[in-house]
Amino acid sequence: MARRDYEIDELISAEAIAARIGALGTEIEAAFGDTEKLVVVGLLRGSFIFIADLVRKLDLPVEVDFIEASSYGNAMESSHDVRILKDLRGPIEGRDVLLVEDIVDTGLTLRHVLGLLRSRRPARLETIALLDKPSRRQVDVRATWTGFEIPDEFVVGYGIDYAQRDRNLPYIGTVRLP
Ligand code: IMP
Predict the structure, then answer these.
(1) Distance, CA 34 to ligand 1 centroid (Å)?
(2) Does residue 136 belong to any structural domain of this protein?
(3) How many CB atoms lie within 10 A of CB 21?
(4) Total number of domains in the chain
(5) Which CATH number covers residue 142?
(6) Where does the pLDDT of residue 118 fall: very low under 50, low under 70, confident under 90, or very high at 90 and above?
(7) Please, which pLDDT band fits residue 82 given cuts at 50, 70 and 90?
(8) Ligand 1 atom at minimal distance to the Cα of residue 46
């Protein structure tokens, strides 16, 4: 494997992520305690590790589905052109849905995907984002639950990539270009 031509500085340790997800799991369980079967929707690809850890903290009947939206391509800037690349497998009408996202940055992806899911008339629709960069927001959208607020830095790890690399890091780090 080619060496990285950039450095990664740890921002959030694997232990801190695990502790935060434990606490979020308790809150989500309380919020959806009466739900017959919660549909947990992972927004691909960045949420794949987060959703795997999160659902294992939920002592609730859950179904897992995925949706994929285009975002950054291989650059560090958003294209602002959100498209659905892979849709859900199952219907969500009348269901309780939890959308799981990696990062809310400009908010454009979340707004687009929420609009699409809302149009399918779920009984309840909430969102959880592992990371939030509020200083970058372009549209007024907010996740119901957030893991960590972070500064305006480009991050990788724990499912999140830089040009499709570093999703497999167990922690979250910031990218430092030479
Ligand atoms: P938004 O539409 O600008 O909110 O961007 C959301 C998506 O952009 C996220 O789901 C990520 O896939 C990607 N993204 C935003 N910030 C970062 C980052 O710091 N590192 C890697 N991907 C990011």
Answers:
(1) 32
(2) yes
(3) 19
(4) 1
(5) 3.40.50.2020
(6) very high
(7) confident
(8) 12
